[in-house]
Amino acid sequence: MVSGGVIILVAFFGCCGAVSNNRCMLNIYASLLLLAFCLQVSGFVLVLVWNPDVSAGLEKEMMQSLSKYPVENTGSNVQKFWDTVQKEWECCGVHSRLDWAVYNPALPRLPDSCKCNPDFEVFCTTEGYYERGCYPELKDLTFDIQEAMGWTAIGLASFEVVVGILTLIYANSHRNSKKGRK
């Protein structure tokens, strides 16, 4: 709600300034766009700097969730997460299938979602389990999402700079045209 209110306020200054040819409102609008640009650039830098922390936190959370995987089929969120990830990405455990024995020793056997057919699947051991862990896949997905967010922020920020420059040009041309009439 707060961001919606800020957007309405900024749009108000831009619209009313352009309609009424009010230089002050147009300058406020351009200043607010410049402020938004600075905030977006700082947010982009934070995402780039924060990247390693996300990766370490993700790995830790994945390892902790292994111990919460239920022994019996209960349909819990942890079970749904691991079963879906392991089947979809053809992986098992965090770094390998051996993680299950370390972090969930109560589990009598590997989850069924770790099973694969060695005759048809590439990342399958001769015992019929996925050999690679799921962490690299999830980490790559996280980085891809962050990269997409970063490029989107750069695109929006560039657009804001162009609009801000055009607003200032319009405000100055209007002022200059008034000076020429006097």
TrEMBL record:
SUPFAM superfamilies: Tetraspanin. It is a multi-pass membrane protein. Disulfide bonds join C92-C114. Gene3D superfamilies: Tetraspanin (1.10.1450.10). The chain crosses the membrane at residues 28-50, 148-171. It is found in: Membrane. It holds the Pfam family Tetraspanin. InterPro entries: Tetraspanin/Peripherin (IPR018499), Tetraspanin_animals (IPR000301), Tetraspanin_EC2_sf (IPR008952). Keywords: Disulfide bond, Membrane, Signal, Transmembrane, Transmembrane helix. It comes from the Eukaryota. Its main location: membrane. Residues 1-18 form the signal peptide. GO terms for cellular component: plasma membrane. PANTHER family: TETRASPANIN (PTHR19282). Belongs to the tetraspanin (TM4SF) family. This is Tetraspanin.
